[in-house]
């Protein structure tokens, strides 16, 4: 009996992809807390935006909540997610004498410190970001209400009317589209030439590198598959980057079984990447799904080498001792 040969497919596998140093650190914090203190360990908000990761930690004894009032009085650790939290959250934890551990990405913390510095200098602050995202909520919550103005679009940047144009500064969410943000910044710089900018780019290295790899792959691909959650800002931006450079099909999937094979169609070349919260096992799962249907050849598309590692909070070691 003859078997039909599978059609050939080139996979352009983006590098870097998947976990960044901040996500890796946050997951390690939860895992270490579970090892040292046992279950339950409470986590405010998803530690990172990935269902597979969250479900895996739940199975080990992590309990995810949206607000602290869902947590009973306990001596067990309470962990704040990688996205950062408003200052009111650790203050509330302190009042309840909860043993809390901050898993905020250090690059998000850097933006928080920038906001505080500008505020102390008397600058009016613009935050470029997406309303409702946990990182944006956390950054705005570092300062009194009204101290930070959120700008989401180029239209917002054109319409913005500061109280003191000569005392203005901007900061950004760390997971934005590099190109979109550059366009918004250009408008602000043109309108307010004296605006203070970050000493070092706020969009994190991992976001920038992953978007650059997608640009390289998507210009050659018939379709781009981004592995990530629908509520993951950096994953959604990767899809947008692929679309912007002209890739005909751009899919955001959480798992291989989410792939819309009709949309993929009879492609000859597909790009694959993963958002900063997606583990490599899900990338392998997607590649395996393509291998079932196609005779695959995998080519690595490398935009940068990453060797960033963030230290774990000292409090875990101290508490264990």
Describe the structure.
This protein has 321 residues and is α/β, with parallel strands linked by helices. It folds into 3 domains: 110 residues, 4-hydroxy-3-methylbut-2-enyl diphosphate reductase, catalytic domain (Cobalt-precorrin-4 Transmethylase, domain 1), CATH 3.40.1010.20; 97 residues, Rossmann fold (3-Layer(aba) Sandwich), CATH 3.40.50; 85 residues, 4-hydroxy-3-methylbut-2-enyl diphosphate reductase, catalytic domain (Cobalt-precorrin-4 Transmethylase, domain 1). Helix content is 40%, strand content 19%. The chain has 12 helices and 12 strands. The strands form 3 sheets. The chain has a 5-stranded parallel sheet with strand order 10-9-11-1-12, with helices on both faces. It has a 4-stranded parallel sheet with strand order 3-2-4-5. Helix 8 runs parallel beside helix 9. The radius of gyration is 21 Å and the shape is flat. 43% of the residues are buried.
């Amino acid at each position: 009996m003859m078997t039909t040969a599978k059609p050939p497919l080139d996979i352009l596998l983006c590098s870097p992809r998947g976990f960044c140093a901040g996500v890796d650190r946050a997951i390690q914090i939860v895992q270490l807390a579970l090892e040292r203190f046992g279950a339950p360990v409470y986590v405010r908000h998803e530690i990172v935006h990935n269902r597979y990761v969250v479900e895996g930690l739940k199975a080990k004894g992590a309990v995810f909540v949206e607000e602290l009032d869902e947590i009973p009085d306990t001596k067990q650790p309470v962990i704040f997610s990688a996205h950062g939290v408003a200052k009111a959250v650790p203050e509330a934890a302190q009042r309840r004498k909860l043993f809390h551990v901050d898993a905020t990405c250090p690059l998000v913390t850097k933006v928080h410190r920038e906001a505080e510095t500008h505020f102390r200098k008397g600058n009016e602050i613009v935050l470029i970001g997406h309303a409702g995202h946990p990182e944006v909520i956390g950054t705005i919550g570092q300062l009194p209400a009204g101290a930070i103005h959120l700008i989401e679009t180029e239209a917002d940047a054109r319409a913005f009317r500061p109280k003191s144009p000569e005392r203005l500064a901007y900061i950004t969410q760390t997971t934005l589209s590099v190109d979109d943000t550059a366009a918004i910044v250009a408008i602000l710089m043109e309108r307010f030439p004296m605006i203070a900018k970050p000493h070092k780019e706020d969009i994190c290295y991992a976001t920038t590198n992953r978007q650059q790899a997608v640009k390289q792959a998507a210009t050659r691909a018939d379709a781009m598959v981004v592995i990530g959650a629908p509520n993951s800002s950096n994953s959604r931006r990767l899809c947008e980057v692929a679309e912007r450079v002209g890739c005909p099909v751009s899919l955001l999937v959480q798992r291989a079984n989410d792939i819309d094979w009709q949309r993929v169609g009879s492609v000859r070349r597909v790009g694959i990447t993963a958002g900063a919260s997606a583990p490599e096992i899900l990338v392998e799962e997607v590649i395996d799904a393509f291998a079932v249907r196609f005779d695959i050849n995998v080519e690595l598309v490398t935009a940068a080498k990453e060797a960033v590692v963030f230290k774990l909070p000292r409090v875990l070691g101290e508490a264990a001792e």
